[in-house]
Design a protein that fits this description.
By secondary structure, the chain is mainly α. The protein contains 20 helices and nine strands. It has two domains: about 200 residues, Fumarase C, Chain B, domain 1 (Orthogonal Bundle), CATH 1.10.275.10; about 300 residues, Up-down Bundle (Fumarase C, Chain A, domain 2). The radius of gyration is 26 Å and the shape is elongated.
């Protein structure tokens, strides 16, 4: 069983995925325990001294000037969680909830939040037991953090609200009981510490980021299949061309294409043809796919920083005796990065659909049959597959509009600029899903095109992809229901099986 140890400093996106999608167990690092104990002792000291500190013994937001009596401090934390649990919409998928839980625990483990160790341990107990709070997807504006989503997360720890356990939705108290756990009582500052932060946008964004990175590589794979199916040239992928521009993503994409097409009998078969240049969707794959890679490299860096960032407010500095109300909960860095990533990954589908058009359009496809079907007229072949790809591309154009350019005042004007980062994360995730579907269409068409090049055999990379596809989807001789074929290829993309098969044949791809 995979295990992840959190210390607030070194969590990777791959570890987030291991916990969120594969159920890896999570434990606290000893150093994190010591830091949390120190910051909690500082909170207790503040309470003993009667110092007025935001969120410890005051109201919240615009009510921060309201002093709370010592006897009501614990009720203050409970009321905060209840009042902020106002998310709307469909529940966040379990993998997104698990990512949020892990990230919130990791943030608090940094030791600047004043939360007791037992609270973080209980959060990890829920995570390890598979108790997943029901968290509505909508309701966050991305500052002061993901308040509503994180409140729903914390609500389940109190035994209130709802949770999922072993695939069944039930009252959270019942889910805790079935898992052998009991509700927790919050002490001073702990409610605020658990809901201030960017863990919804970062969790959703981190999982979409990893999927997007894999799509960038799969775009090179299916692009190589198209090069062979369309009798296109591999010369534009020459390393000397890439060196003269020096964008790292472009170089990586071109290197993938060279590796995938190495020794291609199909490319060699038309070496002396009269064609001078190919369409941009083929010739410019390194430039387009590579630009997406570079954008994703930026969003990966931002998400990795955020996964290990202290986003609580106020932050405690026990060694200095200071409590500082700052703005680390503001999601702007993440919002901008996710908007950029969404635009970048949408371009993968955009250029993919143009390559599908190259394959199905007999005026463009180097003597492939119209719509990749032998008995045209009677059969429509992949005619509407291209239309479906076009619909996904157009939908992405709408979804790619940046969420971060919007802001709306909240909390009686105290929170007068917000990031909309969680909206950016959800849009990014939806675009990634659309791009997965678009590439599945392209793989179907590319496989059909390669079969029409027989007896010529594709190179190892495209050949491995074709072999796996044909295990699930036969050659299209006559029209059949295509959504079932598409669903099978989409499954190969989402499971990672398709990329793994290609890399087993050619070696690791960037």
């Amino acid at each position: 069983m995979e295990r992840v140890r959190i210390d607030g400093e070194s969590l990777t996106l791959e570890q987030v995925e291991a916990v969120a999608r594969r159920g890896a167990k999570v434990e606290l690092a000893p150093d994190a325990v010591r830091r949390m104990e120190r910051s909690r002792a500082f909170v207790d000291e503040i309470l003993r001294e009667g110092r007025v500190v935001y969120g410890v013994n005051t109201g919240f937001g615009v009510l921060s000037d309201v002093r709370i009596d010592a006897a009501e401090i614990e009720q203050l934390q409970v009321n905060l969680i209840r009042s902020h649990s106002i998310g709307v919409g469909e529940p966040l998928p379990a993998e997104g909830v698990r990512a949020m839980m892990l990230l919130r625990a990791n943030v608090v483990a940094k030791g600047y939040s004043g939360v007791r160790v037992l609270v973080v341990q209980r959060l990890l107990d829920l995570l390890n037991a598979g108790v997943h709070p029901i968290i509505p997807e909508k309701g966050s504006v991305g500052a002061s953090g993901d308040l509503a989503p994180l409140a729903h997360l914390t609500l389940a720890m109190l035994g209130e609200g709802e949770a999922e356990y072993k695939g069944k939705r039930m009252p959270a108290k019942a889910a805790l009981k079935k898992a052998g756990l009991v509700p927790i009582a919050l002490a001073a500052k702990e409610g605020l510490a658990l809901i201030n932060g960017t863990q919804a946008m970062t969790g959703i964004g981190a999982l979409a980021q990893l999927d997007a990175e894999r799509l960038a590589t799969l775009a090179d794979v299916v692009g190589a299949m198209d090069v062979e199916a369309l009798l296109a040239s591999a010369k534009p992928f020459d390393a000397r061309v890439q060196k003269l521009r020096a964008h790292p993503g472009q170089a990586a994409s071109a290197a993938n294409l060279r590796k995938l097409l190495r020794g291609s009998a199909i490319v060699k078969s038309h070496k002396n043809c009269g064609k001078v240049q190919d369409a941009y969707s083929l010739r410019c794959m390194p430039q387009v796919h590579g630009a997406t890679r570079d954008a994703l490299a930026y969003s990966r860096r931002v998400l990795t920083i955020e996964a290990n960032a202290a986003t609580d407010n106020p932050l405690l500095f026990p060694e200095d005796g200071d409590v500082i109300s700052g703005g680390n909960f503001h999601g702007q860095p993440v919002a901008l990065a996710l908007d950029f990533a969404a635009i970048a990954v949408a371009e993968i589908a955009d250029i993919s659909e143009r390559r599908v058009e190259q394959l199905v359009n007999p005026a463009l496809s180097s003597n492939l049959p119209a719509f990749l079907i032998e008995h045209k007229g009677l059969n429509s072949g992949f005619m509407i597959a291209q239309v479906a790809a076009a619909s996904l591309v157009s939908e992405n154009k709408i979804l790619a509009h940046p969420a971060s350019v919007d802001s709306i005042p909240s909390s009686a004007g105290r929170e007068d600029h917000v990031s909309m980062g969680t909206i950016a994360a959800r849009k990014f995730r939806e675009i990634v899903r659309n791009v997965q579907a678009a590439l599945a269409i392209e793989f179907l068409c590319a496989a059909q095109g390669l079969d029409f090049r027989k007896p010529l055999v594709p190179s190892k990379g495209p050949g491995a992809a074709l072999k796996l596809i044909r295990k699930r989807v036969p050659f299209l001789h006559d029209d059949r229901v295509l959504y079932q074929d598409h669903r099978r290829i989409l499954g190969l993309i989402q499971s990672g099986e398709l990329l793994a098969a290609v890399e087993a044949a050619v070696g690791s791809l960037a």
